[in-house]
């Protein structure tokens, strides 16, 4: 579960990480009672990145300017998400900006401290610039100082950054987190250090141990309870857009990467679901098979979805059951298509099909048998299934199928 920036800043302030004076804004008129001195910055509180480029971060010098900017931001969707609150924060002039993070490395099963003297880092070259320290034993200030020294910091700045890393690690342990990130950590002309933005990722399996986080999760789930469809989506790690290509993946990274590739290829993503974990407020246990079955049903009943793009890497539990679910879904569509044909007396020109096409990308040796089996499935002409191993090829196929379906209907 990802927290919004204003929630992260509240945690930072409580544990002693320096943050700017700020105030949550629920409505533009709240700015008439602002307790922060101008100039200020208004930030859209959404989970999507690149807020500044999308227009979700704006500066204001006066109350009138701030209210006008807030009205625009409240009505600005970023990757399909509208903010329910904004964060008003004091303006800060940083002369230096750093990146700091504490992350759980699943490969070594240990926390890792990360630091870089650049905040806006190019992740393709991060290996050369990013410093890291593995917390191999019980944590001590030694690990934080070691990271600061590896970053090339000295004197008072080294001590200050070390203390912040210690606080980040304390928060990481106390809240059972997968990630604590400060990006950027600003340093002004006087040497004052401030966490200007932060990210927190909560380990979903540990949420039940923290009543305050459980309440956050409930509120997040209830935001979309106004309609039955959104209520179903609120149980998932999901992005709801309005395109024709639904995306299913087994990890946040793979889902977002697939979404970006679809957009770059000229396609329009629709509902995107991450099936790796059930939503933390889900009271019933679920398997990956259950989530895949439900996700396919959700996309199938949405008449705007013309293609379902499945992107699974080789870390899916019970891969043979994944094959079974996809095969059952295809067989169900086959029977539905046959029923529609009979009802229209076999006249295909009269038949208006809403059956989604399937593009399945299965990567990894454990899916070898699954790929061979799925390619042998017999499907109706209006419910094709394409099985590939290469993601770029899968995206191209999905975009082409969506365009072909649109041309055929109009």
Automatic annotation (TrEMBL):
<dbReference type="InterPro" id="IPR011761">
    <property type="entry name" value="ATP-grasp"/>
</dbReference>
<dbReference type="GO" id="GO:0005524">
    <property type="term" value="F:ATP binding"/>
</dbReference>
<dbReference type="GO" id="GO:0006104">
    <property type="term" value="P:succinyl-CoA metabolic process"/>
</dbReference>
<dbReference type="GO" id="GO:0005829">
    <property type="term" value="C:cytosol"/>
</dbReference>
<dbReference type="InterPro" id="IPR013815">
    <property type="entry name" value="ATP_grasp_subdomain_1"/>
</dbReference>
<protein>
    <submittedName>
        <fullName>Succinate--CoA ligase (ADP-forming)</fullName>
        <ecNumber>6.2.1.5</ecNumber>
    </submittedName>
</protein>
<dbReference type="GO" id="GO:0004775">
    <property type="term" value="F:succinate-CoA ligase (ADP-forming) activity"/>
</dbReference>
<keyword id="KW-0547">Nucleotide-binding</keyword>
<dbReference type="InterPro" id="IPR013650">
    <property type="entry name" value="ATP-grasp_succ-CoA_synth-type"/>
</dbReference>
<keyword id="KW-0436">Ligase</keyword>
<dbReference type="GO" id="GO:0046872">
    <property type="term" value="F:metal ion binding"/>
</dbReference>
<feature type="domain" description="ATP-grasp">
    <location>
        <begin position="9"/>
        <end position="222"/>
    </location>
</feature>
<dbReference type="Pfam" id="PF08442">
    <property type="entry name" value="ATP-grasp_2"/>
</dbReference>
<dbReference type="InterPro" id="IPR005809">
    <property type="entry name" value="Succ_CoA_ligase-like_bsu"/>
</dbReference>
<dbReference type="GO" id="GO:0042709">
    <property type="term" value="C:succinate-CoA ligase complex"/>
</dbReference>
<keyword id="KW-0067">ATP-binding</keyword>
<dbReference type="GO" id="GO:0006099">
    <property type="term" value="P:tricarboxylic acid cycle"/>
</dbReference>
<dbReference type="InterPro" id="IPR016102">
    <property type="entry name" value="Succinyl-CoA_synth-like"/>
</dbReference>
């Amino acid at each position: 579960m990802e927290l919004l920036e204003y929630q992260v800043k509240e945690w930072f302030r409580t544990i002693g990480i320096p943050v700017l004076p700020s105030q949550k804004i629920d409505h533009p008129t709240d700015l008439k009672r602002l307790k922060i001195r101008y100039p200020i910055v208004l930030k859209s509180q959404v989970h999507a990145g690149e807020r500044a480029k999308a227009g979700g971060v704006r500066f204001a010098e006066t109350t009138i300017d701030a209210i006008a900017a807030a009205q625009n931001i409240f009505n600005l969707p970023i990757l399909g998400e509208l903010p329910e609150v904004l964060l008003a924060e004091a303006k800060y002039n940083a002369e230096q900006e750093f990146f700091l993070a504490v992350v759980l490395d699943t490969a070594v099963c240990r926390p890792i401290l990360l630091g870089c003297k650049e905040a806006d880092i190019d992740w393709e070259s991060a290996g050369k610039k990013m410093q890291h320290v593995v917390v191999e034993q019980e944590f001590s200030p030694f690990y934080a100082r070691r990271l600061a020294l590896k970053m090339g910091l000295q004197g008072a700045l080294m001590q200050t950054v070390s203390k912040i890393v210690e606080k980040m690690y304390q928060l990481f342990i106390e809240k059972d987190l997968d990630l604590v990130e400060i990006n950027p950590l600003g340093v002004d002309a006087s040497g004052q250090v401030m966490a200007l933005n932060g990210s927190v990722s909560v380990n979903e399996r540990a949420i039940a141990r923290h009543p305050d986080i459980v309440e956050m999760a409930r509120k997040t789930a209830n935001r979309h309870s106004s309609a039955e469809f959104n209520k179903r989506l609120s149980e998932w790690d999901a992005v709801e857009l309005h395109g024709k290509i639904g995306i299913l993946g087994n990890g946040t990274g793979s889902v977002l990467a697939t979404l970006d590739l679809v957009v770059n290829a000229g396609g329009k993503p629709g509902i995107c679901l991450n099936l790796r974990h059930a939503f933390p407020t889900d009271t019933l246990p679920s398997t990956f098979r259950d989530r895949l079955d439900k996700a396919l049903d959700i996309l199938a009943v949405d008449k705007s979805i013309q293609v379902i793009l499945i992107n699974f890497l080789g870390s899916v539990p019970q891969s043979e059951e994944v094959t079974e679910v996809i095969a059952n879904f295809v067989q169900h569509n086959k029977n539905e298509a046959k029923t529609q044909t009979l009802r229209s007396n076999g006249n295909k020109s009269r038949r208006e099909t809403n059956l989604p096409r399937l593009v399945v990308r299965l990567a990894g040796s454990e899916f070898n048998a699954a790929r061979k089996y799925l390619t042998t499935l017999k499907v109706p002409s209006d419910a094709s299934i394409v099985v590939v191993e290469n993601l770029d090829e899968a995206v191209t196929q999905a975009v082409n199928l969506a365009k072909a379906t649109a041309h055929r209907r109009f």
